[in-house]
Write a structure and sequence with these properties.
Helix content is 0%, strand content 52%. It contains no helices and eleven strands. Strands 2, 4, 5, 6, 9, 10 and 11 form a seven-stranded mixed β-sheet that branches. A four-stranded antiparallel β-sheet has the order 1-3-8-7, with no helix packed on it. It is globular, with a radius of gyration of 14 Å. The termini are far apart.
Length: 119
């Protein structure tokens, strides 16, 4: 069973930065993509960014392009989300997720880390 543990959330003022980390563990597993999603109060969970493990190809939601950067450390099975120029509308619980192959969906999720951006 894959376990994902996030860290790095917190409270920051608008314009500030935070870096989230997510480490995957739990025996033998393959990684095709890892990504970040977020859920704000009263809203549905939405995609933020993900990275393809083999070649580090990245995808971003339009709302975070140019401000957020996703990266990975193969050796540590860890994915990072560097968030710059944060806005109050970025306030949400951020979830890390893992997708094992092209034919599967994101099926392993972390428990989430709160990011709060004050105006």
């Amino acid at each position: 069973q894959v376990q994902l543990v996030e860290s790095g959330g917190g409270l920051v003022q608008a314009g500030g930065s935070l870096r989230l980390s997510c480490a995957a563990s739990g025996g033998t597993f393959s990684i095709w993509r890892m990504g970040w999603f977020r859920q704000a109060p009263g809203k549905e969970r939405e995609f933020v960014a993900d990275i393809r493990w083999g070649d580090s190809r990245t995808t971003y939601a339009d709302s975070v392009k140019g401000r957020f950067t996703i990266s990975r450390d193969n050796a540590k099975n860890t994915v990072y989300l560097q968030m710059n120029t944060l806005k109050p509308e970025d306030t949400a619980v951020y979830y890390c997720a893992l997708r094992r192959s092209l034919t599967t969906q994101y099926d392993s999720w972390g428990q989430g880390t709160q990011v709060t951006v004050s105006s």
